[in-house]
Specification:
This protein is an alpha+beta fold. It is 36% helix and 20% strand. The protein is built from six helices and seven strands, in the order E-H-H-E-H-E-H-E-H-E-E-E-H. Strands 2-4-1-5-3-6-7 form a seven-stranded mixed β-sheet, sandwiched between helices. Strand 6 and strand 7 form a beta hairpin. Helix 3 packs across helix 6. The radius of gyration is 16 Å and the shape is globular.
Length: 181
C-alpha cells in the first residue's frame, strides 16, 4: 500500500459519496461535541459498480500496471493517503477537486467519506496511459503525484492546502492513536 518512488502518479478509482455516517471522522466530531451521533448517510454498496471496478483493478494488477494500491476505508481518502505516504516515507501533492465524486461534496466529505469500492493507486508515468485506458469506464482520475520531499500536501477547491503536514508529524499522530487503543 505504500508509495514506492517519487514521480509516480496517484489516481483515485471509485466514486466518493456523501457517506460520513458512522465514519471515524464523525465519531471524533460527535465525541468532541458530546453528541451521541453525527454524520449522515452510512456507506451503501452498489454491487454492479463494485464488481466492475474490482474486475478492472484485478486486470490492472495482473498486467503489472500498479506500483501500489490502497483502499480508503476507515478514515477515508485523507487517512489512506497519509498511510501510503508514511509507509514509503515519501510525500504527495494531491488536488482534492480531481477526486471522482458525486457533485456538491465539501472538502471534508471528500477527505473523510468512507464510501466503499474505492482505491488509491500509484503508477509509473510510462504505464499511466495503459492504466487510464483500462479504467476509462470507471470513476477514475489522476489526483496527484508522489514526491521525494516527505510532506503530504492536499490542495482544496480554492487552491489552498487543506492538509500540509510533514510525514514525521503524521507518523507521530498515528502512533499516538495506536497507544490509546
Amino acid at each position: 500500500m505504500d508509495f514506492k518512488k517519487p514521480g509516480d502518479l496517484i489516481y483515485a478509482a471509485g466514486l466518493t459519496k456523501n457517506e460520513l455516517g458512522a465514519s471515524a471522522f464523525c465519531r471524533l466530531v460527535a465525541k468532541r461535541r458530546r453528541k451521541l451521533n453525527a454524520g449522515g448517510s452510512v456507506p451503501e454498496l452498489d454491487c454492479a459498480r463494485a464488481i466492475a471496478l474490482y474486475q478492472s483493478m484485478s486486470l490492472a494488477t495482473e498486467a503489472g500496471l500498479l506500483e501500489s494500491s490502497h483502499t480508503p476505508t476507515m478514515g477515508g481518502l485523507a487517512v489512506a493517503l497519509a498511510l501510503s505516504a508514511m509507509g514509503g516515507n515519501l510525500g504527495a501533492e494531491i488536488e482534492l477537486g480531481s477526486v471522482p465524486s458525486e457533485s456538491g461534496l465539501t472538502e471534508h466529505e471528500l477527505l473523510f467519506s468512507e464510501s466503499n469500492s474505492r482505491f488509491v493507486v500509484t503508477v509509473s508515468p510510462e504505464k499511466a496511459p495503459a492504466l487510464e485506458k483500462l479504467l476509462s469506464s470507471q470513476p477514475f482520475a489522476r489526483i496527484g503525484r508522489v514526491m521525494e520531499n516527505p510532506v503530504l500536501r492536499i490542495t482544496g477547491f480554492n487552491g489552498q492546502p487543506v492538509i500540509d503536514s510533514e510525514i514525521t508529524t503524521l507518523r507521530k499522530a498515528f502512533k499516538k492513536t495506536l497507544r490509546n487503543i
